[in-house]
Design goal:
339 residues; alpha/beta; Quinone Oxidoreductase, Chain A, domain 1; Rossmann fold; 2 domains; seven-stranded mixed β-sheet; six-stranded parallel β-sheet; ADH_Zn_typ-1; Quin_OxRdtase/zeta-crystal_CS; zinc; metal-binding; NAD(P)-bd_dom_sf
Length: 339
C-alpha cells in the first residue's frame, strides 16, 4: 500500500523529512478496525514527533493521528462496527499513524463519522474535538449541562484547531468565552465560532481583561504554549480557580502564587487513554459519537480551513510547513490518493 513515512528526523524543508513509501497492508488485531483511509489531518503532535533529532528508523515510521475512512475488516472481538461503515478517529500515538492507504485502530476509540461531512471535514475533527472536550469537561470538570453557565472561560489559542472547538463547546455549556487572537482574520474566526470577547495574546492580558470589567476569570484553557502564559494565567484566574494546559513546559513553572490562590492546574493529553489502555478507553468513542451528533444536528461546525490533495509526501510536507509557521487557522486536511 502507499504510505508517507520517515526514517530520519529532519527539518520539514528537507525532501527526506517525509517520503512516499510502500508498506504491507496491516492486519487487524482482535479489537481493531482495518480502515481504508480517505482523508487525514495534521496536528502539532505530528510536527513534534517529526522534529529533528539523530534517531534513525529501520523501517519507515508513519505519522498522522486524525483519520476518516471506511472499515474494510474487523477484529474478532469488535462489536458495533461492520465492513462498509464510514468512521473517524484520532488513534493511538504508540501505534503507526494514518498516513497510509490502510490503517488499524482500536474500535473503542473510533466512531462513525458525521454523516453530513465529507471525509476531509470529518478527518479535521477527532484529535482536536477529543482534546477540547476532555480539557473542558473532564480536566476542568465544567458542566456540559449548564451548571457553570455565565462563568468566564479564557481560551488561549482560540483560533487553532483545539481552540476552535473549545470555544464552541464552552458556549454550548453556557460559559462566557474570552478568546485570544492577534490578527484580523483570527479575530474574525473566533467571533464566528461564538467568542463573547477577544483579547490579543501578544499584549499583556491583565489590562485587556480589566477593560472587560473583570478582575479575574473563573477558568483558563491554554491551548497554546504554557511557558509564556503561566504567570499571567496564575495572576488572572480567580482564587480556587482551575487552569488546563496541553503543551509541555520547557522551564520550571513558578508556583508560589498558584499555591497562595489554591489554584488547580491539570494537564490534558488526548493519547493518555490509548497509551495506557485505561479501563475507560471506550469513552473516546462515545465522545466522538456525541460530537458527530452535534455536527449532524447543526449545533456544531467543523473547523477545516485548508484542503490539500492528494495524500502524498509533498502535500504532507506543505501541511507541516503551514502548521509550523504558527499562523494556521482551524485545521488542515488532505484527502484522496493518487492513482
Amino acid at each position: 500500500m502507499k504510505a508517507v513515512g520517515l526514517t530520519r528526523y529532519l527539518p520539514i524543508d528537507d525532501p527526506a523529512s517525509l517520503e512516499d513509501v510502500e508498506l504491507p497492508v496491516p492486519q487487524p488485531e482482535p479489537n481493531d478496525l482495518l480502515v481504508r483511509v480517505e482523508a487525514v489531518a495534521v496536528n502539532p503532535v505530528d510536527a513534534k514527533v517529526r522534529a529533528p533529532k539523530p534517531d534513525v528508523e529501520a523501517t519507515p515510521r508513519v505519522l498522522g493521528w486524525d483519520v476518516a475512512g471506511v472499515v474494510v475488516a474487523t477484529g474478532t472481538e469488535v462489536e458495533g462496527f461492520a465492513v462498509g461503515d464510514a468512521v473517524y478517529y484520532a488513534g493511538d500515538i504508540t501505534r503507526p499513524g494514518g498516513n497510509s492507504q490502510y490503517a488499524r485502530v482500536d474500535a473503542r476509540i473510533a466512531a462513525r463519522k458525521p454523516a453530513s461531512l465529507d471525509f476531509a471535514e470529518a478527518a479535521a475533527l477527532p484529535l482536536t474535538a477529543l482534546t477540547a472536550y476532555e480539557a473542558l469537561f473532564e480536566r476542568l470538570q465544567l458542566d456540559l449541562g449548564g451548571g457553570h453557565a455565565g462563568q468566564t472561560l479564557l481560551v488561549i489559542g482560540g483560533a487553532g484547531g483545539v481552540g476552535s472547538l473549545g470555544i464552541q463547546f464552552a458556549r454550548r455549556a453556557g460559559l462566557t468565552v474570552i478568546a485570544t487572537a492577534s490578527r484580523p482574520e483570527t479575530t474574525a474566526w473566533v467571533k464566528e465560532l461564538g467568542a463573547d470577547h477577544v483579547v490579543d495574546h501578544r499584549q499583556p492580558l491583565r489590562p485587556q481583561i480589566e477593560a472587560l470589567g473583570l478582575q479575574y476569570v473563573d477558568w483558563i484553557a491554554d491551548f497554546a504554549d504554557t511557558d509564556p502564559y503561566w504567570e499571567q494565567m496564575v495572576d488572572l484566574v480567580r482564587p480556587q480557580g482551575r487552569i488546563v494546559t496541553i503543551v509541555d513546559n520547557t522551564r520550571p513553572l513558578a508556583t508560589a502564587l498558584a499555591k497562595a490562590k489554591s489554584i488547580g492546574h491539570v494537564w490534558e493529553f488526548m493519547f493518555t487513554r490509548a497509551r495506557f489502555r485505561t479501563p475507560d478507553m471506550a469513552e473516546q468513542g462515545r465522545i466522538l459519537a456525541e460530537v458527530a451528533g452535534w455536527i449532524d444536528d447543526g449545533s456544531l461546525r467543523h473547523t477545516l480551513k485548508t484542503r490539500l490533495t492528494p495524500i502524498d509526501a509533498a502535500n504532507l510536507r506543505e501541511a507541516h510547513r503551514r502548521l509550523e509557521s504558527g499562523t494556521a487557522i482551524g485545521k488542515i486536511a488532505l484527502s484522496g490518493w493518487s492513482a
